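Example 490, ligand zinc ion.
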Amino acid sequence: MRFYSKTFTVVSFIFSVMLFVSCEKEDISTENYKETGIESSKETSLIKYLGAMIRAEELTDGQYMIGGDMIVTPDQENDNKSYSSAGVGLWPNGVVKYMISQQFKDEDAKVRPHPFKNYDMKKMLEDAMSTWTTATGVSFVEVDSSTPRREYIEILWGSSNSSVVGYNSPFPKKFKISDQAHQGVYLHELGHTLGLLHEQQRVDRDDYIIIHSDYINDSAYEKFTANPILDYHTPSLDFNSVMLYPSTEYRGDYNVKKTNGQPFTSGYATGVLSQGDINTVKAMYSGGNNCNTSGNLPNDVSCDHWAFNEIKFMWQNGYIVGNGTSFDPDGILNRAQFAALVAKVINPEPIRDARNFADVPASPNRHWAYDAISKTYRGGYMSGISNTLFNPNGRLTKEQLVVAIASGKRLSGGNNNHLRLFSDQSSISSWAIEKVKHAIANRYVTNYPDKDKFRAQSPVTRAEAAMIFYQVLVDQNIAPSINNPYLLIP
Ligand SMILES: [Zn+2]
């Protein structure tokens, strides 16, 4: 319940009941396996959306559903017919803020039964977010209830799938995903969240596909009506898009085919973003605002650096420094620099008396990290290599870094399953194993470049150090959580 106020939970529950009472979860059958996305069978009416009159389903809170799973709002009723900040609302700085329902976090609810396999919904969601992030640079940031309600999307477990389209909404924004959803559905709904619409509804779609509407049931037909609302994201229909329902959608009897009569799959079916999806979202969030380079940045950490957002935060807030304007992210961290980070980020209370080290003099040539090393030693985060030497220029291995922080922060939790994810778990020293588990359980551990390799004995780079200290700041509620694809999510 860490991020959830009681009020918020109650409110979200009431909303769920209000909106979706007619389709609460029933049995899990193969019939239900197909995504329908229909929230309720409300009255439909014509609304003006992005410059066109289109048929929409009225929802109980004043929003509208179009295309079966896209929630739009009155403030999107304007004449702008393009993907832009004036049309489909874009998420500021390319950052999608979200709050995930406790339903996804409860251990007994995390893995839902499925007709064919067990899906870990939280992992699927995070994988889909990572996929969009890696491909396009947009990011997804989990927020807490101190964030104004209109600024984030609430992710709920539902009996069907739907999402708001883009950011531009004064209403609470909702995203619903069912336990029947496969990976393509997660990517698809997040595509709506970012502002994408359906490829099969583009106004020129009859040039590419034939909709055999006789075979589509009434509730699903809404998903296939052509809407003249946008200049769609690619010049021609994108058959690989996750925003295109494949031939097998609904009943599996090829009710949508290419004009040559052939059935087709799409990214929706395969769970893979198309180049068109990627290029469109990049273009929508162009200008580098998905990788926001505003403000003071080190000159050697570019947008495509794997820890860009974390390093940026720490640099701009004075938690890390470099040599003038460069940070040297791939340089090896030394013990004095580690102490400087501990002192700056954690600022530990002393638990033992100070010790003087011959290689960290106070005078006459005071070591640059004298105060930090003293604070770090007294806080119990580091000891010397002997009673008289600290070895400030020595390196730390990954396991030493993780153990030092896990011990100092007195982290707990975790289990052996975390380590089984590693193809190199045997390289972890026996004295480090428990602490590594604690650190993973608390979302402190990042594995770069291979998520399944802990690299226990590798020296730590400055970027890796920035990354773990960033997680400390997240844990201390100082920095926002960032869905970095290399962060281990227990
Ligand atoms: Zn959709």
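Summary: The pocket of zinc ion is lined by residues 67, 69-70, 188, 192, 198 (CB under 6 Å).
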